Amino acid sequence: VAFAGDETGESNELTESSAAEAERFWTRSIQGPGYVVAFAEVDAVEEVKVAVARLATPADLGTAVNADGGGGILVRFVVLVLGPVKELKTIKNTAETAMTFASLFADDTFYADAWEAREEGEVRKAVRAFVARETEVDENAVPMPRHIDAVTLDDGDQFKHSGRLFGGLMMDIRRKYNWKLYKSDYTDGMTDIRGILKYVGATAWLFFAVLLPCVAFGAVNNDNTILPGDTKGQIGVLETLIGQSICGVIFHMFAGQPLVIVRTTGPLAAFINVLFSWSESLEIEFLPFYCWTGLWTCLFLLIVVALDACVYIKYVGAFTEEIFALLIAGIFVQEFLKPLIDVAKNGSTDTFLLSFLLALCTFLVAYVLVEFKKSFLLRPFLRTLLSDFGVPISVILFSGIRQIWDEIPIEMMPVPDQPGLSTSSGRPWFVHFWDASVESVFLAMLSGLILSMLFFLDQNISANFVNRKENKMKKGSGYHLDMLIAALLVAGCSLFGLPWVHGSLPQSPMHARALADVEEVELHGRRYERVIRSRETRITGIVCHILIGLSILATEVLAYIPMPVVWGFFLYLAVATVSGNDMWDRCLLVFTQAEKLPSNHYIRRVPIKKVHLFTLIQVLLFALLWLVKSNFYIPGDPVFNAGLLFPLVVASFIPIRMYLMPRWFSKTELDALG
To answer: Is there a smaller number of Cβ atoms within 10 Å at the N or the C end of the chain?
Structure first.
């Protein structure tokens, strides 16, 4: 067994007999997520010797213990520490040296550096960087990527008021538009094949993850904005595709956090429906009213930016985020089930069976392929490749399989059928907002205020999910800058009658995860994927939205995608959103034998009754949010729709968590539960 030499470069060899002796005295090890540090004292050595091995692929060495009490935890780094039996007085003994290396690999940054190291010198450099970080005054400082100097990243607490108008925005601009940092958003990961493949896979996934909901909600907008005597809506699929493409490119070029995905969403489509109902009921022109609503929203969001109001998003903690994410998952499940139920009621048996099989199989194949990287089949490179391209493979595969039974009528994806780039209804592109009456302008102020609340929550919560500590972003956030760009995009979309866009779930955090290098580890009795290296780039978002724009020229190809495939993809998004949601995990605890949980599980630190009470409160708030949200979809033509209160209900969860929950739970319990 070869060991690393000392500073003089001298190498050391351990004989076979010594190895046998080491095995005989092998009794101790320190285990952690992805590493094991084994140590022992033997007679064959006179000083502490250390060997560090990085396995080509993680392996189950039979040393670590998983949540079920058996083996199965994958180890990437093995550290072997051998020391003499006699006591050493001048240097650390064997156990102390082992603890030192365990501390090294327990540090996420060092672990990532060691994971990427190509030679011994880079590991030594990572050790020195670890020591430097530990001796810094600010122990929470986030290290920048190696190729970027210490640019103006240290702007203080990102959720702290600057004390001046547009102060937070100016700090975001100085930091994010620093040339060296901005340039790295285009160059990071472009020098190694693994990074390039990650970009290609993430772009392909993102294309379908944005395009399919975009077309689906475009069809909803088309149906909801048809004027009497017209056959096409004022805002249709073409407007949705063009708006998505242009807004996406602009946002990813200038955003403070370019991994956030902006798109039109279900609540926005429903809001447009409510505005159209108002215009019909009050006999005012829809598009000028729509335009003024967007312009007022832009103004309110600019006020938010000027006052640094984005800092208040810090009060939207895990308690609210878990409920909101579960709501998004529920909406996608609804979008999977509702059209299938309609087909079962109104279609033939053959149509229903084919639609159901296409939807279910699209979900299953996408899910299995994405999770394939965790299996032991094939080589690691092929597993990763199949995982990165799992969703595109599934969508393309079952769109092709549908052609085998082309005689069975099923719903196909609606695509623009008008020639060129004319609007869906033939209206002018630019909205004549000056035609709106004074009364409708002031009514639009009310709808704009409500819409700005929705933008504030959705945009910032999406950024919060991306900027979470576990995603290991190193270039800082840009909440104020993102909100400014969102405000300007609202105004632009309003002037041209395009659907609005804002940050969205689950695409935003899934985009960040699709670009990251991850590995499966266990901590506190739970198995999860840990990010080893994040990639913060603008390339994937820009290329994806350019492709969406070009798809307008390939509508004949898009027309081959069946809607059941889209519904199956919605189910995949729902399951992906639920994965890792602590609220969902706590709901499953009702059906779990608590004694089977490991002793270090966080549940063991909180009485199980308190856990169920906490979960019950979240479930009740989720039910309230769902009921309010459902008013968006109640048929009819109401002048006021209770669904418009959706943002206020989400905001009300913040004081509930801050002021009511501490009455029933201790601080320790709340820290453990979220």
So the answer is: N
pLDDT tens by residue, 227-243 = 887 778 899 999 999 99
Q: How confident is the model at residue 153 (pLDDT cuts 50, 70, 90)?
A: very low
Distance CA 431, CA 286 (A): 10
Q: Please list, in sequence order, all residues whose beta carbon lies within 8 angstroms of the beta carbon of residue 663, skipping any fewer than 6 positions away.
A: none
Q: Is residue 21's pLDDT more than 70?
A: no
User: What is the rounded CA–CA span in Å between residue 329 and residue 110?
Assistant: 35
CA distance 373 to 382: 9
Taking CA atoms, 458 is separated from 297, 321, 462, 483, 646, in Å, by 14, 10, 6, 11, 11
Compute φ and ψ for 379, nearest 5 degrees. -85, 155
Which pLDDT score, from 0 to 100, does residue 512 have?
A: 92
**Separation between Cα atoms, residue 465 and residue 580, nearest integer Å:** 12
What's the gap between Cα 73 and its chain centre?
A: 25
Q: What percent of the chain has pLDDT over 90?
A: 36
* Those residues with Cβ within 8 angstroms of residue 105's Cβ, 6 or more apart along the chain or in another chain: 32, 34, 35, 37, 77, 79, 111, 114
Q: Which residues contact 390 (CB under 8 A, 6 or more apart)?
A: 205, 365, 366, 367, 368, 369, 370, 372
Burial letters for 284-311: b for 16+ Cβ neighbours within 10 Å, e otherwise? bbbbbbbbbbbbbbbbbbbebbbbbbbb
User: Is the torsion defined by CA of 173, 176, 181, 183 positive or negative?
Assistant: negative
State the residue for tokens 């956090």. 257
Give 454-466 as a 3 state SS string. Answer: HHHHHHHHHHHHH
pLDDT single digits (tens) 462-501: 999 999 888 888 888 899 999 999 999 999 999 999 999 9
Retrieve residue 415's tokens: 């695509």
**Burial of residue 652, with CB atoms counted within 10 A of its CB: 0-12 exposed, 13-18 middle, 19 or more buried:** middle
Reported as a single tens digit per residue, the pLDDT across 265-314 is 888 888 898 889 888 888 899 999 999 999 999 999 999 999 999 988 88
The C-alpha atoms of residue 76 and residue 112 are separated, in whole angstroms, by 11
CB 450 within 8 A of CB 462: no
Q: In Å, what is the CA distance from 94 to each residue of 10, 42, 80, 98, 131?
A: 20, 10, 10, 6, 20
Taken in order 237, 239, 245, 248, the sign of the CA dihedral is: negative
Q: What does the pLDDT read at residue 10?
A: 40
